[in-house]
Amino acid sequence: MHPEEYRAVTDPAAAHHRHSLDHFLPAHRAHNPLLTPAHVDADLDADARSAWFGFPGVARPQGLECELLLVPLPGHSAGHAGVAVRDEEGRWLLHGGDAYMYHGELEHTPALSHPVLDPVQQGAQTDAAARLGPATDCAASAATMRTR
Fold first, then answer.
1. Which of 42, 58, 100, 115 is deepest in the core (most CB within 10 A)?
2. Rounded CA gap, 6 and 27, in Å?
3. In degrees, to the nearest 5, what angle opens at C-alpha 75 toward C-alphas 7 and 8?
4. How far apart are CA 138 and CA 73, in angstroms?
5. pLDDT at residue 59 is higher than 70
6. pLDDT tens digit sequence for 87-99
7. What does the alpha-carbon distance between residue 76 and residue 4 come to, in Å, rounded to a whole number?
8. What secondary structure letter does DSSP report for 86?
């Protein structure tokens, strides 16, 4: 898991520790998962460590054969990260999880809301400005990813 999410779940001094524990339901922890923070890989060059398609703070889990990165998607929950994987053709695919539930949040500036999904998003998010603020940048990054 991304180091920021690991800290939010395991460190009582973290700003959103209680919020994170409340959203990791007992069923999520019942099998005693081994939570391990990813580390920034020293093999990544300085540009890759600082930003990936405009997303700063990427981390790479150690010991994997494939190119896989954890990409911070702030605001949804403390330390929430998407998973980026490079396919056989060299294209990057980003899975954002439930950071966004409605395409209008990414495709429009300002972001369009959805009356049915808004209460769910607002109940889960830790920082609306961080989650919705970079929407235009995210859409531009996604367009750039499709061309590489």
1. 58
2. 18
3. 10
4. 10
5. yes
6. 889 899 998 877 7
7. 13
8. E
Q: Using alpha carbons, list the distances in angstroms from residue 73 to 27, 43, 97, 101, 104.
A: 24, 23, 10, 13, 17
Q: Please measure the distance between the N-terminal and C-terminal CA atoms of the chain and give it in whole angstroms.
A: 26
Tokens 């609306």 map to which residue?
128
pLDDT at 97: 79
The burial class, CB within 10 Å (0-12 / 13-18 / 19+), for 139 is middle
Name which of 80, 84, 76, 78 is nearest 60 in CA terms. 84
Nearest C-alpha neighbor of 97 from the set 132, 137, 63, 70? 70
Q: What is the model's pLDDT at position 91? A: 92
Q: What are phi and psi of 94, to 5 degrees?
A: -115, 125
User: Rounded distance, CA 45 to CA 24, Å?
Assistant: 34
